[in-house]
TrEMBL record:
Alphabetized NCBIfam families for the sequence: allantoicase
Superkingdom of this protein's organism: Bacteria
All copies of domain Allantoicase, residue ranges: 22-171, 191-319
Keyword tags: Hydrolase, Purine metabolism
The protein's Enzyme Commission number: 3.5.3.4
Reaction equation(s) it catalyzes: allantoate + H2O = (S)-ureidoglycolate + urea
Protein name: Probable allantoicase
Family under the similarity heading: Belongs to the allantoicase family.
KW Nucleotide-binding (keyword) present: no
Pathways involved: Nitrogen metabolism; (S)-allantoin degradation; (S)-ureidoglycolate from allantoate (aminidohydrolase route): step 1/1
GO biological process, one term: allantoin catabolic process
Length: 321
């Protein structure tokens, strides 16, 4: 039986804890049966029945021993993208007779690079109160808290297995380290976010501003085949108001489904400015375009003509605030 799936709107936001975005499970009370690192692994949890190791059935998740004393188990996750948490998903996929009865989530904000011992002594705020859990199901919970956090602590009561922890929200990094330097104003890890998109049929548009290079076309943004007039597009909210000097438009892995051309338009309040006129693209190719000085903008609209996909969009420049 496949696990239940949530429909909460916050799940369209980036998973701030995801391992591929720099997240790390840095401490746990116990991981006797299955490793804590699985909590933030990308993708759906896998399962092969009757697959036994020396510790028992193999699970794609975090599983603790049967607790014989008072207390509960916990795991601390450093967010790959510090930010405001808008919602959490606690997934017990494939754990049925061994899932916890309840769980809660706390969050903390610490500067620098704290050790596990320093985190245990930190001041934690409860963002998800203790909720009941079902086996083999996703549990989406909205979070009404606008504070910036760097770490979360998942507690399960009293013990058992949890497959994944998703922490969806908006990145709020410390950009002071870039004072006087250039940066990728569109990058997810710098606080960029895709706020609108015409079509996300095959994959999330936020993939185009994710870290690193796309390993295959599913790690980029790809639309359905357009059957009417017009073109597809997305809007990127920049890390801050800034001036863009260099645009990178990468169609790597898009061999027969790359767009024919791209247009970049800067937005600053009611003002629109052409950053890159309609320009031809090649399939499976990283493109780099120097841009003429056009003044500061807060958003960039990326139009692809007529449809297709992009692996990555990088918009290098300087913050003006």
């Amino acid at each position: 039986m496949a696990p239940e799936r949530p429909t909460a709107g916050f799940t369209t936001l980036p998973d701030l804890a995801l391992r591929t975005l720099g997240g790390s499970v840095i401490a746990a009370s116990d991981e006797s049966f299955a490793e804590k690192e699985s909590l933030i692994r990308p993708g759906r949890p896998a399962f092969r029945p009757e697959t036994f190791g020396h510790k028992g059935q193999v699970y794609d998740g975090w599983e603790t021993r049967r607790r014989r004393e008072p207390g509960h188990d916990w795991a601390i996750v450093r967010l790959g993208l510090p930010g405001a948490v808008r919602g959490v998903v606690i997934d017990t996929a494939w754990f049925t007779g061994n899932h916890p009865t309840h769980a809660s989530v706390e969050a903390a904000a610490l500067d620098g690079h704290p050790s596990p011992a320093e985190l245990l002594d930190a001041r934690w705020s409860e963002i998800v109160p203790r909720i009941p859990l079902r086996g083999d199901a996703e549990h989406p919970v909205e979070v009404a808290d606008d504070a910036r956090y760097t770490h979360v602590r998942l507690s399960m009561f009293p013990d058992g297995g949890i497959a994944r922890l998703r922490v969806h929200g908006e990145a709020r990094p410390d950009l002071s380290v870039y004072d006087g330097l250039s940066l990728d104003l569109a990058a997810l890890h710098n606080g960029g976010l895709v706020t609108a998109c015409s079509n996300a049929f095959y994959s999330s548009p936020n993939n185009v501003i994710a870290p690193g290079l796309a390993r295959h076309q599913a790690e980029g943004w790809e639309t359905a085949r357009r059957r009417e007039e017009g073109n597809e597009w997305l809007v990127i909210r920049l890390a801050g108001r800034g001036v863009i000097r260099l645009a990178e438009i990468d169609t790597t892995n898009l061999v027969f489904n790359a767009p024919a051309a791209v247009t970049l338009t800067g937005l600053d309040g009611e003002r629109e400015v052409e950053l890159l006129p309609r320009t031809r693209l090649q399939p499976d190719t990283p493109h780099r375009f120097r841009l003429a000085h056009a003044g500061p903008v807060t958003h960039v609209r990326v139009d692809i003509h007529p449809d297709g996909g992009l692996a990555r969009v990088r918009l290098h420049g300087h913050l003006t605030g």
